[in-house]
Amino acid sequence: MAMADTPPVVRPVLLWGPVLLLVAYYPALLIYRLFFSPMSKIAGPWITRISDIPEATALKDKRRAEWASELFAQYPDSVAVRTRPNAVSFNHPDAVKAIYGHGKGADEFGKSSWYDAFSTTGESLFSTRSKKNHARKRRMVSHGFSMQSLYLFEPYVDAVMEIFLRKMDEFASTQQPFDIYFWFELFTMDLMGELSFGHNFGAIQGGRPVKYSKLVELSQHFANLSGMLPFGKYNVKVLSMVPLPYIQKLYQARLEYLDYARQALEKRFQDNRNQVLGGKPRQDIMQRFIEAQDPETGGRMDFPELRAEASSLMVAGASTGSVTMNWMTYYLSKNPSVKARIIQQLEQMFPDNLDASTPLPFAMLNKLSLLEATEIECLRMHPPIGYAMPRMTPPQGAIICGVYVPGNVDVGVPAATIGRNPVVYRNPNIWNPDRWLDEKADLATMKTCFLGFGFGSRQCIGRNVANQFIIKMIATLLLKYDIELEDPNLVLGTKEFTILKPDREYNVILRPRRH
């Protein structure tokens, strides 16, 4: 009986033990983070030392990149600020090279667990954290993004551009104001469908976004939120179980988007395997992924891996390309002298094609340094991804710009912040593409701090593809139409939907150019 009577006496003690430990643990943790952590002396509000809430709130309010820049403005003498208990952002050229450069062995800054949230049916080039796996993937597909491949892709780009230009002709004939950014988004949707799945989605002809565009935005927001959790590869699963309607809406969008990508890729295999253009087998981006072989093992990507890459391509290509063309149109309209110089160069280069009835060939356009500088300057001021792409410090920690950061801490450089660093860029808030053509400027440092496409071995592999269709589109529009803002006094800001987009709708007016 004595033994039977023991549990009621002992059980309360067994229960109170963990409770007392928790009660003691959390205050001790807060005190440690505030005063005794190796990162406690890094600049930043006290709340970011103990809580993820400020950054999560900024993300929910669609202003995380702006929030990070505001933190640096609060601590102008600091090269680093604490954005979360386990995250530090830097604003210095040396930090770019240290964090995103080519580290070796123990000095390597690997991708943080934030990227696990972007792995869907498999790891993509963007989401994989494994240096070995990334190197394998890059070996397999790098030729598909070479300059030679761009010329193979160009007929598909031209085909979608011709549909777009017919729509622009309609607006030019009536000279009615319209939202050109909306149509840029439709164009890039159709183009990435053409290059990724072998057919465009009919967005331009239908005059409305396709289903996946909204799903992409919501699912990326879900990935960003889950990437802030401390559960590593389980972040997505944990967040998906949170019963808040807002979270469940984002999670369902993620599931629908992945299913959408699966159906589109299956259709590609079923209907477009033997599609030809000009009598030659179709050679678009997805075909390059399908045919890619590891030169060392001979292995190919399976369907889940291809599906992950397709999902990543649709996000990267469509969202970033359209917003960059938007900013180029806006700033050229606000700076007619720069626009006139580009048009003059185009007229000299294409004297027999002044009506630009067909898209201009990229082989000649890539020689226009001012047009390229215009694109780079827009990306400097408005990088598609404005916040820091996180890397993790090596286990032994690291000294970055004289600041010691312990091991396994997220570190990064926000593109939107360093892109306007006055030490790197003179008059950083002034749009001036000629800064990239100034031989007296410190172009090496400027290019280091230009993170519009990332930096180092993990920078965007599709940079050449995006550059091709952006330059072709803007050059063709400038040669074919006079483009004016409906409101000449318009001042556009940004709002963050994972991608930094314009903060309001605006209209332009097209008129056929007279030569």
From TrEMBL:
Gene3D superfamilies: Cytochrome P450. The keyword Iron applies. InterPro entries: Cyt_P450, Cyt_P450_CS, Cyt_P450_E_grp-I, Cyt_P450_sf, Cytochrome_P450_monoxygenase. The keyword Endoplasmic reticulum does not apply. Heme binds at C460. PROSITE patterns: CYTOCHROME_P450. One of its GO terms (molecular function) is heme binding. The chain crosses the membrane at residues 13-32. Keywords: Heme, Iron, Membrane, Metal-binding, Monooxygenase, Oxidoreductase, Transmembrane, Transmembrane helix. Its cofactor is heme. One of its GO terms (biological process) is secondary metabolite biosynthetic process. SUPFAM superfamilies: Cytochrome P450 (SSF48264). Belongs to the cytochrome P450 family. This is Cytochrome P450 oxidoreductase. It comes from Cladophialophora psammophila CBS 110553.
